[in-house]
Amino acid sequence: MILSRFKKAGARKPLLPEGVRIYAIGDVHGRADLLKACFKKIDEHLADDPAVRPLQITVGDYVDRGPSSKGVLDLLWERSQRYEMIMIRGNHEQTLMEFMSDPASLENWARIGGLETLMSYGLRPALSPSLEQQKELAAALQVAMPIPHRMLLTTMLPSFSCGGYFFTHAGVRPGVQLSQQSEHDLMWIRDEFLLCEEPFERIIVHGHTPVRMVDVRPNRINIDTGAYATGRLSCMVFQAGEADLLT
């Protein structure tokens, strides 16, 4: 069980406000099928054990690589109309938004799975598009993307704190107060954060770097289990001083 692993890791026991339960979902990357199944599991869990204030937190990277980025954003929008959702922005959402304002950045986006996102919106990008074709693609994406999707992308948060936990996409820079972290680090940092064994102000719950199974450390918890490649989309449940794996 995650809770026993959490205790063995030597982590201090983080708490949440009374009545709050958090469901934290890892990187989705275009796997709308897995996200839909995860939401079903959460609904079943809540039906069996209601919570006063259930929060559902997604830690970013909803688009790219997998086959249905559009479907993922559809599900997130629909879910946000019925539940209290906290959606963290990942580096892939940031790169998508940069392409829409700067079509010449398509090459960078394509390297991390952007073409799959374009195709999920019904577009057919050339393998080596000219600058003019890149501009046409960006304009076509603006037309093809529903307004709710754009609203989601522009309102996503770089981080969210609750009780003894700090949720973000990639991690934090050691030695910098959580309130002073740069958005770039929150979306992109890797080695400096992952190699840090010192405690942070709160337990950091993050994704960004795929792991075989949820990785529980004394100072952080990685919930990115590489859904687009492994078929495993992880969801953790946090309540009071408890932490366990739902999916």
Key words describing this protein structure:
Purple Acid Phosphatase, chain A, domain 2, 247 residues, alpha/beta, 10 strands, single chain
Overview of the structural elements:
This protein is α/β, with parallel strands linked by helices. The protein has a domain at 2-9 and 19-90 and 156-245: 4-Layer Sandwich (Purple Acid Phosphatase, chain A, domain 2), CATH 3.60.21.10. Helices cover 39% and strands 17% of the residues. The protein has eleven helices and ten strands. The strands form two sheets. The chain has a five-stranded mixed sheet. It has a five-stranded mixed sheet with strand order 4-5-6-8-7. Strand 2 (53-58), helix 3 (69-80) and strand 3 (85-87) form a beta-alpha-beta unit. Helix 2 (32-48) runs parallel beside helix 3. The longest helix is centred in the first third of the chain and has 17 residues, at 32-48. The protein is globular, with a radius of gyration of 18 Å.
